[in-house]
Prior knowledge:
This protein has about 625 residues and is an all-alpha fold. It is built from 33 helices and 6 strands. The strands form 3 sheets. A two-stranded antiparallel sheet has the order 1-2. The protein has a two-stranded antiparallel ribbon with strand order 3-6. β4 and β5 (about 620) form a beta hairpin. The longest helix has 29 residues, at about 165-195.
Amino acid sequence: MTARHLLTRLSLTLLAGMLALPLALSPAPSTVAAQSPPAGTARPTERVSEEEKEKARKELERRAHVLLDEVLRAAQALKLEENRAVVNREAAELLWDHDEKRARALFREAVLAFAALTSGEGSSRRNNPFFWMLQQLRPQTLQAVAVRDPQFALELLRESRPPAEPGEAGAEADARLRSQELAMEQAIAALVAERDPQAALKMAEESLREGVTFGVLTTLGRLRHKDSEAATRLAVEIIRKLQGTDLNTEGEAGMVALALLRGLLLPDASGQQDVFRARATGRQPEKPKPLAVSDEAVRDLAELVAAAALKATYNRPWMLTQIQGLLPELEKKVPARAAQLRLRAAEMEGELDPRERAWMQFEAVATGPSAEAALEAAAKAPQEMRGAFYSVAVANLLRVGDAERARQVAATHLRGEEREQALSQIEQFSVTKAVEQGKVEEARRLITGIRRKEQRAVALARLALALAAKGERKAALPLLEEARGLLPRRPDSEREIEALLEVARGFALVEPVRTFEMLDPLIDQANDMLSAAALLDKFTPGQGMFRRGEMLMYPGLNNIGGPYARYVEALAELARVDFERTRASADRFQRDDVRLLARLLIARSVLLRGGLETPDGQLVGAGVLQVGY
């Protein structure tokens, strides 16, 4: 890694962490109540009436709206059109409940701008190495709109549809574009299903005339919860459409066919995803209604998928590989095809050399839950691949809570970096488990055995957070003090930056003033690194996080899953504990673009309150703003 790339990476890590500091995911009632509306500063928690709490909340939101207006005005001075569009889109999310008319106008401006930037004259930006990510801005914004108003999202989708490009190369690009547009339209139909199943069914049936994408399966999944008759009808329509399709060559059709067949043959297994969503969202799992698809239609689909899998080649084995798990069920529906598939799989295996066969086996093991299968495969794998299999076995053993056996596997079979990573994973798992079980002394003993200082600091901070969450803030404070003492004041690596931010997260819940004391020197360091990165970017433009001297902004739409998302929880309380001081800290950023972004995040922390949740448990609008395309 060159010094320039290292500097850019460190700048991104530090900046993203810093900008996450003021972002609050959820209000803490005691903290909001403790805030003094006139000054916006925290004072010791005291009993206050519901009326006072509501008054404090409204005052905080008023300040956030004033700040958001300032951000929108300042955004007009940004050089890059995509950055102005990003700010408009973010502001629209925040304004939807406060001023829907203005929010709709901002969403429309953003969507049309993103469309223009990736088509026609804007297509010259393909020279930008981050052009592929720029292309995601329009669909991501349409997703944010669709959660709020699917019909408006469909209107914007059609209004902003890029024109076809001329020429032979343009025809190929146009085909890809039509497929992408179809996928978005079918995904929007899935959101309509929550409000109007019949309207969603009609939209899905109309879109099937143009082709099949995963979006139609999403609609099917939603309809199974809302209207089983409509879901069954759509499933039959999908099967009919697939019968006239080459599953090996036409886009996502093959994957859709295989997924639908798996859902029909193994309906109980297909419901597992709902359980995982329920765990993530805290809701009870909703059992989807069964599909009343006829045996004849299921056999037709099985024949279609089996025929495509039998055409698998040395270079395109994926469908034959994926269908192996369905063979016991296929033997009941299409026994002749099942026998052919077993024979073809054996032939394919014979065509592969041992290393390629091992990699195919690894793909199957890596996606399965069995540690025993991984251990068995490791013993037979080529020497250079065994570490990958044993690492999977360690992960699967931890998944079932067997940390002791996982440690034995890692210590016996892994070497070098793989061994270090596995042991670190086991240490973190053991500490987390002890904390969850309330075994504080055991957690402290395990933390003492962690070798790397930054990892030990993170573990101490997380133990402190667990104690603080239970109201034991007095016990949490010395743990945070110990963790802080393990780390330098100015971090020199990504690991140290991340560890320092994790400790700051703890202080934000226990002693917020300490968080601000940690924040200011980190912002100074971020300013130095950003200045250096911007200077280097002048000599190799288009390769870093700046263009035309301006930092690239990118909106985060993930469900708290980005690389810095755990630091969003990190200093979640800051803007609510002390709005004005949080803003003052944000204003320490020297660059106008970074300062604008930080102010936007402060407003977001107060107004968005964790984002909107889609019916499948995805969070839209709760992610941090990413920096750099």
